[in-house]
Design a protein that fits this description.
InterPro entries: ZFYVE26. It comes from Naja naja (Indian cobra). One of its GO terms (biological process) is regulation of cytokinesis. GO terms for molecular function: phosphatidylinositol-3-phosphate binding. By secondary structure, this protein is mainly alpha-helical. Helix 5 packs antiparallel against helix 8, helix 19 packs antiparallel against helix 20 and helix 21 packs parallel to helix 23. It is elongated. The termini are far apart.
Length: about 500
Amino acid sequence: MYPFGREEAASLERLFWFFSECVQRGDWELAQACVPQLRQLQDDGSEKVEKILHALIICPSRLRSESKHSPQKLAWFWFLVLKEWLSHKQKTVPAALQRETEFLLLLEELEKDVPFVVLKELYEAFEDNHLLHRKQRDGSVQKFGVEVMSTLQKMLLQAPRKLQSILELLQRDPVECSSSVVQSGLPQNVFVGFLWDSLKSLKRLQLNPELLEREGNKVADEIYNAMSMLNLKMDNQTRELRLLCRELLDACWFEQSPLREERLLSCMLRKGSHALLSLFGSVFIEKMKEKLLSQKSPGKGTPEHPDAEWIVMALFLDHEQAYSWKAAYFYYLSSNKHFLEQILITALTLLKREDFSSLSRLLTQEFSYLSRLLILLGWTQCCSLESAKMLLETLHKSQGFYNDSVLKDFCDGLCAQVEVLEWCIQQNSNCIPENILLQHLHSLECHSSLYLLYQLTDLLALNEEAVIELFQKTSTKYTEVQGKIYNCK
């Protein structure tokens, strides 16, 4: 009988019947083509379609399929259809359903290469973490058997991304266990176990140079893969992990080791987390401190020359540039001070000790831009006129122009004032007390040259032409120097 007045509804009913027939026959592409139109079904009809899609995902093994369609691939096929269906209703696929579908698909892809008992144990671990009732879990970290660990270790070299996906899917729901994916422990424990086993293998190979040359690169690649997938949170840095980092560093520093520190560092870089790199850096600094401080003589390490400043000088004065910057990066990553702040503090320490040779070596290349700033910060630390002249000679007169015109003008003024101060001392028949001299030296930027003449000489007794010549000489001299530097740039 023709459905007068309800043609559209009848058409949708026939389409739903045809969709059901296609599912029963295994015509998956044809059944999928019906789904977009079935979105127009109302109430019960829409719910029926959604339940069918759920059933297709949950029980794919009962579906008819051609040889090219495996059960879990069919489940994934219908999962994508369900995902699109729900998106039009402003809904999302349940996380548990997506996680189980992805995990079973991964296990199916491993069937050809992995023994059944291993796949079974992996699925049991998944069940324990996700499918059992929350009260049935004891909260312990999953531990695998020897055969499973051996299989996972092979995957680390052959299919590292699949291994990472499996271990991440095995994690308990963060909402249920109140922790992030990596905090629940399984991937971290597995990868840490791999690293310890690999380090033991590397140590055994080191006893036999021929074996080391033949198999060392394979073990090194295994370590790189494990490190690239090991994730870490700041509050999950255990003593075992610190010990592991020390062993990794020792392995890198071993002569003829196939393990390269630079590549190991690149494996630790994470877009969203610096925890692993920070941990490795703090361990690196511990070992570096032990090495550098062991080289100190018994008389060093006093309060005026503390360990932090000794380390900075040892790094930037006695090592090549690449090593210095790498060590400095880790040192300041694990401390609370900015590296420029510590460089300036160390430079001020050298200035106080009047060690201008070391100061000049420290403030070279990248740090030369700090030279005139250090004069401004450390001027009051000069203990004599000669010390002030040496400071200006080392950090100003011998330096180029670094787009620091304000600081350069300030230092030019200090140079002129120092010459005036020295001239005043020469003209004064009486010996000027040291405290008075230092008072004027430290406040040169606050007063004019005429003020110095008035305070330190008998102004009326001075030769007028000599005074004018002094002022003209200092003014002309530094104008010429300034012009030469600007022209050079």
